[in-house]
Specification:
Rossmann fold, ten-stranded mixed sheet, two-stranded antiparallel ribbon, globular
């Protein structure tokens, strides 16, 4: 049973308009995969790394050996490796769903990085591309993946793009590409990693189980960047208070950053912990009372909520003590005619309508998207030498028939509920007790709030020894925490250490 959730998920690419469509002449023949191979260099930690860049498409077939898609990718393979079978390889993607991989590609994982201002707006071209000292290419080969409808990826033969636009359809396709790439490049015995951002973490949880269960492939580790597994934590559904609780600690971090907290505590981490305790204790209990919360008890909760969120008592009363994320981003700095970022609440933008309830744009997306897009396109076509007649789509949004199928079979049939791939992750981790998961959270991420991830992990039903394999890290950045230079450096350190530690027995 299909159920479409009106989510404004998950990564910055959602806010970009797709590039103009490129019209290709119809052909009776199935096109073959086409790649461009170039030799490149990058300096990481003072050392020059020579590598091969392979950018283009790979033809995928279904179980009946029928061609179904050309899947786009960009692979970076380090030169001079004596035994490629033992070198780690990381498969990387963004989210959306419906986003290409340019954000992780140009922001933190790839060998080149687009330079943007943080937390302010980046001026228009010319932009700057630099060697990415934070790239993991020194410790792992990299395969940047673009799901169907994004990048150069598209259906062929009898298949249609829409055949791949859904939770389970996407998991199967990504898994199929990984298996084929591993097979064609003789990497079955290489330590393998999945790195996903936003919806890419939701995808990760499904893929790690699908690869293991259906393709006999276990991964060494999974890196979750700005994670979400249980979409119920994001949907402000009528009568369901869980999302209000999950968002509160991020509201608190945001209010702290913008000096909206009275007698502002010196420590952000301590203040966030205080907000956690309030959220799971008094606030949760109060919301469960529903209309029964009255009098002094209601007043006390409203005052505490005002303290943590920076919102007025009057506003909180009108909101019935329940403030949706889009309402919070509009209200917090309304007196300054500013709107707060969803992807990164450190960013602010001009509020063109001081009476508006919801923001019509995201300040961080507006600030950095043109720079990322321009630098990637210039790099992709001119440095990697990809055929310029091949149109790269940064997003599937706006493409004909794009409509995501949110059914997830593992969650069971019947009355529709928000899908949860945490179930998949729990199964995969329980069946491979050596698998490790690194989760990177931004304190200022209102797209996938960190407390929602903490809640999801605590409700996976994992054995204690297995749960220890989940490692949580926190950053003073947002959804794309790597735009914040100190967080970029921390990201590299923690991700590289994770790969090095889990790639050896």
């Amino acid at each position: 049973m299909k159920f479409i959730y009106q989510l404004t998920l998950f990564c910055a690419a959602l806010f970009l308009a797709p590039l103009a469509l490129f019209s290709q002449a119809k052909s009776d023949t199935i096109p073959k995969g086409e790649v461009s191979i170039t030799n490149q260099t990058v300096r990481i930690d003072g050392k020059v790394i020579n590598y091969k860049a392979i950018a283009g498409t790979m033809l995928l077939r279904n179980n009946d050996d029928e061609p179904i898609a050309l899947h786009g990718f960009t692979a970076y393979l380090k030169d001079g490796v004596t035994d490629a079978k033992t070198r780690p390889i990381s498969f990387v993607f963004n989210g959306g769903p419906g986003s290409s991989s340019i954000w992780l590609h140009m922001g933190v994982i790839g060998p080149k990085r687009a330079v943007v201002n943080d937390p302010g707006f980046t001026p228009a071209a010319p932009y700057t591309l630099e060697d990415n000292n934070a790239s993991i290419l020194d410790v792992s080969d990299i395969v940047m993946m673009d799901p169907i409808g994004t990048g150069l990826s598209h259906a062929v033969g009898k298949a249609k793009n829409k055949d791949f636009w859904g939770v389970d359809q996407d998991i199967r396709m990504i898994s199929q590409f990984i298996r084929q790439f591993v097979n064609e490049n003789d990497r079955w015995n290489s330590p393998k990693y999945l790195i996903g951002e936003s919806y890419g973490t939701f995808r990760n949880a499904g893929v790690m189980h699908y690869l293991q269960q259906n393709m006999g492939m276990s991964v060494n580790g999974v890196v979750m960047v700005s994670a979400v597994f249980d979409l119920r934590t994001l949907v402000f559904a009528q009568g369901d208070d869980i999302s209000y609780v999950m968002n509160l600690p991020t509201y608190a971090a945001t209010a702290w950053y913008h000096d909206k907290v009275p007698n502002k505590p010196a420590s952000l981490a301590a203040f966030i912990q205080e907000s956690r305790e309030f959220a799971k204790g008094e606030y949760t209990t109060a919301l469960m009372e529903g209309d029964g919360l009255v009098g002094e008890a209601r007043k006390k909760i409203a005052e505490r909520l005002s303290y943590f969120t920076g919102l007025s008592l009057e506003y909180l009363e009108r909101a019935d003590l329940r403030v949706r994320q889009p309402e919070f981003t509009e209200e917090l700095l309304r007196d300054q005619r500013k709107t707060v970022g969803r992807l990164d609440s450190r960013f602010t933008g001009i509020n063109q309508d001081p009476l508006s309830q919801y923001s019509v744009y995201d300040p961080q997306s507006a600030a950095i998207s043109p720079g990322y897009t321009a630098m990637f396109m210039d790099y992709f076509y001119n440095t990697l030498k990809v055929n310029k007649e091949s149109t790269y789509y940064t997003s599937a949004y706006g493409r004909q028939g794009f409509d995501w199928d949110w059914d997830h079979a593992i969650n069971g049939a019947g009355f529709p509920t928000p899908p949860n791939t945490g179930t998949d992750m729990a199964l995969a981790m329980s069946r491979n007790p050596y698998m490790k998961v690194l989760i990177l959270n931004g304190y200022y991420d209102l797209a996938t709030p960190f407390y929602g991830v903490e809640y999801s992990i605590d409700h996976l039903g994992l054995e204690k020894d297995i749960k220890k394999n989940i490692i949580m890290k926190y950053y003073e950045g947002g959804h794309m925490m790597y735009t914040h230079r100190p967080s970029l450096e921390k990201f590299k350190k923690e991700t590289a250490e994770f790969i090095l530690q889990t790639s050896k027995h």
